[in-house]
Amino acid sequence: MMPSNGTRSLLWGLSEVEEKMGWRQSLQGADVPMGRTIYLNEPLRNAFCENSISTAKYSMWSFLPRYLYLQFSKTANAFFLFITILQQIPDVSPTGKYTTLVPLLVILVISGIKEIVEDYKRHMADKLVNSKNTIVLRQNAWQMILWKEVNVGDIVKATNGQFLPADMVLISSSEPQATCFVATSNLDGETNLKIRQALSETATMKTEKQLSNLSGKIKCEEPNFHFNSFAGTLYLNEKSPISIGPDQVLLRGTQLKNTEWILGIVVYTGFETKFMQNAVKSPLKRSKVEKVTNMQILVLFLLLLVMSLVSCVGAIYWKDRYRAEPWYIGKSDYDYHSFGFDLLVFIILYHNLIPISLLVTLEIVKYIQALFINWDEDMHFKGSNVYAMARTSNLNEELGQVEYLFSDKTGTLTCNVMTFKKCSIAGITYGDLSSKSDDGAKGLSQSPCFISDAYEFNDPALLQNFENDHPTKEYIKEFLTLLCVCHTVVPEREGNNISYQASSPDEAALVKGAKKLGFVFTTRMPNSVTIEAMGEELTFEILNVLEFSSNRKRMSIIVRTPEGRLRLYCKGADSVIYERLSENSLFVEETLVHLENFAKEGLRTLCVAYIDLTEIEYEQWLVMYKKAITVVKDRMKTLEDCYDSIEKKFLLLGATAIEDRLQARVPETITSLLKANIKIWVLTGDKQETAINIAYSCKLLSGQMPRIQLNANSLEATQQVISQNCQDLGALLGKENDLALIIDGKTLKYALHVEVRKCFLNLALSCRTVLCCRLSPLQKAEIVDVVKKQVKAITLAIGDGANDVGMIQTAHVGVGISGNEGMLATNNSDYAIAQFSYLEKLLLVHGAWNYFRVTKCILYCFYKNVVLYIIELWFAIVNGFSGQIIFERWCISLYNVIFTSLPPFTLGIFERCCSQESLLRYPQLYRISQTGDIFNIKVLWIQCINAIVHSFILFWLPAKMLEHDMVLQSGYTTDYLFLGNFIYTYVVVTVCLKAGLETMSWNKFTHFAIWGSIMIWLGFFAVYSSLWPTVPVAPEMTGQGSMALVCPHFWLGFFIVPIVCLIQNVAWKSIRNTCHRTLLEEVREMESSGVQVLRRDSVQSFKVEEVNLQRSSSPRPCQVIFRNNSVDLGAPHGYAFSQVERAVISQEELVRSYDTTKNKPQKTFSSATLE
Amino acid sequence: MAMNYNAKDEVDGGPPCPPGGTAKTRRPDNTAFKQQRLPAWQPILTAGTVLPTFFIIGLIFIPIGIGIFVTSNNIREIEIDYTGTDPSSPCNKCLSPNVTPCVCTINFTLEQSFENPSKECEPYRRNEDKPIAPCGAIANSMFNDTLELFQVGNASDLTPIPLKKKGIAWWTDKNVKFRNPPGTDPLEERFKGTTKPVNWVKPVYMLDSDEDNNGFINEDFIVWMRTAALPTFRKLYRLIERKNDLHPTLPAGRYYLNITYNYPVHSFDGRKRMILSTISWMGGKNPFLGIAYITIGSISFLLGVVLLVINHKYRNSSNTADITI
Questions:
Q1: What backbone torsions phi and psi does residue A459 show, to the nearest 5 degrees?
Q2: Half-sphere exposure of B50 (CA within 13 A, CB side)
Q3: Confidence class for position B21, pLDDT limits 50, 70, 90
Q4: Buried-most residue among A313, A441, B124, B251 (CB within 10 A)?
Q5: Chain A residue with minimum CA distance to B61
Q6: Average pLDDT of A581-594?
């Protein structure tokens, strides 16, 4: 077994929390010895693993041993195996040799078939992959071979669009400078293309002849799972060694893009490829219910031991009382009956107390529950035709118990689509249409992400003002020009279409917005940009780019306008722009109001301003600037100071508002989940401002909510600010307050220190909303882990990207958004859904239902076994603890397999506490499953006691009925088995009806299971007792059916015994439901009384709703007086801006390197790789 | 092992297969079953909804119980303990192991005539079964007292009552389950090579002179082999058939019971009793079921009343929405 990537990084992470992206760095840091030597064109010397892969669990030969091993490593199965073995000891078993073996075999065969079906699918998928074609160089010629035949050392030729069959080192490509592009979304989830470049030494090797003559070797590290690292050396004969790095390596699982062909030498194959090394098994998660069940099985096992011991003691007592053994029991029979022997006998007698069929029943039930999730049309995203997918069925019921929801932001709450939404130019807002008409807002909130154009900036007023010579016309022109010029976007022309490539999604949105308004950015050249302003072509010479950084919160650009003037355009946060405004600046107040309004809506705002520079000013500054860029020490700081010196006396133009589009129905879903008492924490790698913006727009934050912002630089400071806040909260600490806690990754590092952790959690748990920003993937996982351990609540993590994998794996339930950002999150999740809003149905409906179903199914399985097998104990009391069984042995073993096997299934598959609509409408109902009150050890004991009472009635009532052995018309006397069959019949009836009593919703399957099971037993009884001697089984059953089924006592008892058992349960249930009405009962009554669920004016539903409203966690105004300055009580700021910072090449270098008038090189940028 | 690697990713980059099918091709038809919208009945268990059931159960069960009770009481039964532990009993002498064979006689009087056919004498005793070898211990301990019944006539002359020894076993036992070894030879030949159980007086092929009631298909043996469940049990011994409809089977009068006492029960405090009983449609006398029906019917009725009160008390308050979660 391979250690999992996720676990490994987690292990490291807990010891040392690293800086941002520490996850990857720590992986790269691992030392890998250079272990592999590949000889070029010498296939015989390269003996490594094959390229064929197998993801299947079993092969034809390994199936049986492996499967049996897996099955018997489950405690319950091992227990039954043990019983089976015990039964083989001669004379020990009162129930024959095969009565446990057969049901066990049935169960093993059923789960075996399930395994085979699943494994067959994997085999087929593997076969498909292994038999794909690729071209390799063999015997000096290109040959088409299958993927599985590719060996290490082969030279492979791949063409555009192909997936690469193995990890290889790039030799050469069709593109200039031997570059190529690959899509890596399968591996790391990033949507942008990656560029790879061959070594210049090999770049020219393109013909068969050149390649065949290649000789030498490659030394490289042993296979490992680090995607972004590779260390190797190429030794070409008669040349000095050249080192190979990750830039030359093409990985299996990636797809060749925008490149005609490439040639590569295979270095890793099959399981040794990085892709396969990374395809790890997600950690095995067990649900809380499963853990409780295991505890309960243990309890039952103890009960079994106690019963066996009691019976042994009883046997000794009995023997002691009749010291001289009764003559009628042959002496020889009793000689070896020792205590230990008796114990074994009784363990075998009572062993069925532990339900043999429980595990397999649960497995099937959960499998079908998972299918229901997969089938759900309400979780079907029609846009990409993606259904929800349960990747594991272990955790179905855990979905009903979630208390903490950890959500990623980008791609999960948001679509990761930025659109230019509104703006404020010269004190006039534009684009406010949608908020004025309610329809627009509604359409917006439900708009699926991919229809983007329809919801962009659309306000004819702006153009009208521009065209009709409105007084602000010049401002509008300047504003739009700024948007077109002041950015780092690169245009790409395809025919008449221009698309924009940007590292900053905000900038792309602004440029696109401007384009729609007639200001089209067309061409970027190293020293200039060209725009078409209302058809007029203008070229601006770019003199300087004053780069963006999150410190500066602004970026500026100095241009020479077509008129030859020097001008500085700047866009940035309101706070920084406002403090640099000149006194002459107009519309300051109006714009500020607009900014605030934008921010309240959760829009990302930027202020834009400009200043005209004089030539002298600029010359002076340029001198300073040139000096600054040559500084070695603290260059960044010096540069920023230098930028700062010219960014002043701004003239305000206005502000832009960009919508980071939320996914459909996110605010509604969040409201609903909050009502269901689920606490939502947003964990994002993104910036604090952005996170706050999104929190506003998805209603996690409201305008008045005080925000506790924890930003500290040291452990002491963190400790101090946390304890200060705790003190301020005082008595409210530990309760849910209408507060928001916002913390950044750096502070969190300190906050999770052992000493501070407890305090921090106390504070965090007292807040209604928690936002954690700037987190590394590792920190995301860590915070989930801390909450999981400290709060002991069920956690759910939802995310879509590679950086969420850690937390998805750590949380009790991991949900992946199967969206655009590749497959990594989905592949490591337990459930995959296409939209955040589907979480509502997944949790509130499927989760709650599955919880009810699974727990009822388990409790019922326990109940029915206890009922039947405790009867043996009552019987032992009257038979002197002899170990005699009262039922026919095969009836006993078929009890779980046939006669009472259907009701658990209908409970587990079809049980519904109430309709889907009600569950969604009253999220409060979720708390029933969330608290887990209906399934714990106490409930089990109650159920067991109930079962014992039932079994008492079920034994003694028929026993008294048949006391005189004369119940047949012709005076025949009866035997023990006659009584046994009476009891057995009544047990089946009682147990089936009890299932009916537990069922809250009867559909046709329920009827079939309950009435059918009873009929099946009666039919079986009739047939089985007339088999002998035609079929050599059960001679003692001969004639039982024909005698019992015509016996009046049988039918009189048939009605009274189950009623005696169940009347108490019915009475108790109905009294409890009447005196202590729960919301669930209220809702159920409402449903069955035919009140239309959708009619809101119905009196009853209105009342329920009113009650719900009072009960829901309505935001109480927070009355805490905070005495520290970490709390922000003011109106929200809307500033947010994403841009790559401190990249390998600076923003200035980037813009200077493009000339879009030429065709090549064609490059693709990572878009918004912050998240 | 690579478990969550999905080969399909490499083929089309699509989402991996769900347990139920392939991601791209599956198009669940929108059936009520798959969308979990099957029509269903939701039973509401509240005092108001269940109380009619309780009353109905009460109203049905009480008359049934009375009927059963009356039937049971009409069954006539007489019980004679002949274990002999009481020194005054004529069978007391048989407790001494020295007296073999032992015959004791008991006189008794029937004060009413036994109208309806039947029958039967049965030994009552403590018994423990351990069917380690089903044909071993149980068969070995087969009951072997002989009981004969005589009517004492006017002149103290004894009229033997004919006791039917065939037809006391279940038909299936006699004809299906128990078979003598096949062959046409006399039974003794067919059982050659076997020996009688230790405690038996006679070998199995000498249980009866009637070929059809001998060997394994001897009905006394078959009846014995139906092992009872409880320590105190009854076995059907003989049937007394009504001769014609005009005369009672056993008219009132004095009777004389002749017992060949072979079966020792004293060592385990057992008791042996002979019971004469008539038979009804529900077998022998057992008032328990009748009482049970009456009791449950009454309890159910009572619960119905309690629920009625509860319902009355809470119906009003429920509308004021006193809900707790």
A1: -145, 100
A2: 27
A3: very low
A4: B124
A5: A1056
A6: 86
Encoded tokens for A447: 């708009």
Which pLDDT score is estimated for A706?
83
Cβ neighbour number for residue A917 with a 10 Å cutoff? 13
Terminal Cα-to-Cα distance of chain B (whole angstroms): 46
Instruction: Give the pair of three-digit tokens for residue A1124.
Output: 């520290």
Evaluated on CA atoms A1072, A1073, A1079, A1081, the torsion sign reads: positive
Total residue length of chain A: 1171
Buried b (16+ CB within 10 A) or exposed e, A838-853: bbbbbbbbbbbbbbbb
pLDDT of residue A446 exceeding 90: no
Q: What is the pLDDT of residues B99-153, one digit of tens each?
A: 566 777 777 766 655 544 344 444 444 444 433 333 566 777 788 788 888 888 7
Say which residues have a Cβ less than 8 Å from residue A166's Cβ, sequence separation at least 6: A51, A150, A152, A156, A252, A266, A267, A268, A269, A270, A273
Catalytic residue among A154, A342, A376, A408: A408
Examine the residue annotation and report whether A1097 is marked as an active-site residue of this protein: no
Classify residue A138 by burial, with Cβ atoms within 10 Å: 0-12, 13-18, 19+: middle
Identify residue A1130 by its one-letter amino acid code: G
**CB burial class (10 A; 0-12, 13-18, 19+) of residue A1055?**
middle
Encoded amino acid at B7, one letter: A
Count Cβ atoms below 10 Å from residue B135 Cβ, excluding itself: 11
Which pLDDT score, from 0 to 100, does residue A248 have?
Answer: 87
- Reported as a single tens digit per residue, the pLDDT across A492-507 is 777 777 877 676 778 8
Question: What region does A1091 belong to: left with phi over 0, alpha with psi -120 to 50, or beta?
Answer: beta
Contact A976/B122, CB-based, under 8 Å? no
Looking at chain A, which residue has its C-alpha nearest residue B295? A1060
Q: For residues B222-244, give the mean pLDDT.
A: 82
Which residue, among B226, B269, B278, B299, would best test binding to A if mutated, counting the most A CBs under 10 Å from its CB? B226
Cβ proximity of A1080 and A913 under 8 Å: yes
Task: Round to whole Å and give the CA distance between B60 and A353.
Answer: 36
First vs last C-alpha separation in chain A = 32
- Dihedral sign of CA atoms A1070, A1076, A1080, A1085 in order: positive
Residues B18, B20, B24, B29, CA torsion sign: negative
* Beta-bridge partner residues of A566: A560, A613
Q: Which of B10, B39, B68 sits opposite A1052 (nearest CB)?
A: B68
Calculate ∠ Cα A1004-A1007-A1008, nearest 5°: 85
Whether residue B117 has a cis bond before it, omega within 30° of 0? no
> Which pLDDT score, from 0 to 100, does residue A1019 have?
95
CA gap A475, A977 in Å, rounded: 101
pLDDT given for residue A795 in this prediction: 94
Q: A211 pLDDT exceeds 80?
A: yes
Peptide bond into A246 cis (omega under 30): no
Q: Of A1081, A1118, A741, A1110, whose CA–CA distance to A914 is shortest? A: A1081
Question: Which stretch of A92-96, A290-294, A320-324 has the lowest confidence by average pLDDT?
Answer: A320-324
Residue numbers in A near B131 (CB within 8 A):
884
| CB within 8 Å: B170 and A1039 | yes
How far, in Å, CA of A144 to CA of A122, rounded?
Answer: 25
pLDDT at position A185: 65
Of B30, B45, B230, the CB nearest to A963: B230
Whole-number CA gyration radius for chain B: 33
Assess B131–A contact: CB distance below 8 Å, yes or no: yes
A676 — phi, psi (to 5°)? -80, 15
In angstroms, the Cα distances linking A393 to A254, A358, A396, A716 are: 30, 16, 6, 45
